[in-house]
Amino acid sequence: MDVSPSGRTDARTNHERLLVAAREAFTVSGGASLTAIAKRAGVGIGTLYRHFPTRESLIVALYRHDIQELIDLAPALLADRPPLAALRGWFDEVARYGQLKYGVAEVIHAAAGGGLDDEYYAPLVHAIAQLMAAGVAEGSLKPDVDPEDVLLQLGVLWRINPDNGGQARAARILDLIVDGLLRR
Amino acid sequence: MDVSPSGRTDARTNHERLLVAAREAFTVSGGASLTAIAKRAGVGIGTLYRHFPTRESLIVALYRHDIQELIDLAPALLADRPPLAALRGWFDEVARYGQLKYGVAEVIHAAAGGGLDDEYYAPLVHAIAQLMAAGVAEGSLKPDVDPEDVLLQLGVLWRINPDNGGQARAARILDLIVDGLLRR
DNA sequence: CAGGTTACCGGAGAGGTCTCCGTTTCACCA
DNA sequence: TGGTGAAACGGAGACCTCTCCGGTAACCTG
Predict the structure, then answer these.
(1) How far apart, in whole angstroms, are the C-alpha atoms of residue B54 and residue B56?
(2) Closest among A119, A136, A129 to A150, alpha carbons compared
(3) What is the C-alpha separation between B8 and A153, in angstroms, rounded?
């Protein structure tokens, strides 16, 4: 996932510089090649890869904060809405994040892609599990649905063309997904 | 999508050779670089790209036949099963094709990806529409669901890791999708 | 504070995708 | 049966991802 911050100060420095460069690159243009990021950081491409073995791992590091927000949102929503509304609200937020912040989309996409790198996608699964548990307890959702299956289904959000009524389409599909979870 | 067969015989020949080379490459190894396919066809990479502007367009041309099979299957299923069983059966078949034939997966993925190139993804939408219409007529499915939304949802099938219980997961998710379409 | 280990660095290189454009060749017509 | 213009060809080149390994220098230890 991420190289552990070891004793070497140069390693830590480079790690920092890479994150800064990546953040700049992403906020400026919404995307950049790894080569360009390494160059911007004044570091060799090899160094970038040692610190962040995959493209996602870099992005995850960048957007850890936002993802955490998403995760924390689940219990917050549950606190002041009925379970179903909370679930649907959370889905909406996922969609919104995805359209807004390139990085979050990337991560969820990667997570859903079966990257199996539990480290950072487990929390997302956990958030979903929480939301679903509330609905199950209430009797409105069917029990025994695997939250990972649901995360996987959310992956559809990133195959929707954003312009041209994509927002409406996303809403419709989220409705379908929720309906699929309802107890009959 | 595909270059129109013009008067030039060399164009037609190369088109043919590319298809043959691609088919060989895909059946032999399940996948190949475009460079390799062009080389195998004895043609420049530029020629390959002129005939097939995108990777998908090449694969679509290759698997047009299989996709047609899938499309024809919809009415066949409807003829000898109740609508819901037909729908679910068709979904299963899509999943099976996807795991079996690389190309079909590619196409549906591309189609669902909003490639907007109606030419070859409209038939898939139409197949779904047929299946759904039967369910609606029978009263078991909700009306007014956009078949494209459903096709989009099927895209999840190609984010499932095939090994490691992927088959079971696909079945579970297809159940969820169908449940989402049921009238409540 | 000198020397040795060893983690870390950087970039060359392999292999891909896709574009661009100078060159070749075909089909048509006088 | 040429001659000719448009269409098709092909590969160099720009740019990307990712790997590998010889060189470098930061820490530790005596």
Answers:
(1) 5
(2) A129
(3) 47
Q: Per 3-state DSSP, what percentage of chain B is helix, strand, and coil (rounded to 5)?
A: 75, 0, 20
> DSSP character for B28?
H
Confirm if B70 and B104 have CB atoms less than 8 A apart: yes
Residues 6+ apart with CB under 8 A from B143: B136
Residues of B in contact with A182 (CB under 8 A): 179, 184
Q: Name the residue among B176, B170, B178 with its Cα closest to residue B128.
A: B178
Contact A156 B156 (CB under 8 A): yes
For A19-73, give the DSSP string: HHHHHHHHHHHS---HHHHHHHHT--HHHHHHH-SSHHHHHHHHHHHHHHHHHHH
A49 touches strand D (CB under 7 A): yes
The C-alpha angle with vertex B22 and arms to B17 and B25, in degrees rounded to 5, equals 125
**Cα separation of B90 and B78, whole Å?**
10
pLDDT in tens, A52-82: 998 888 988 888 888 888 899 999 999 999 9
CB of A156 nearer than 7 A to strand D: no
Q: Rounded distance, CA A167 to CA A43, Å?
A: 40
pLDDT, tens digit, 9 for 90 and up, residues B34-62? 999 999 999 999 999 999 998 888 988 88
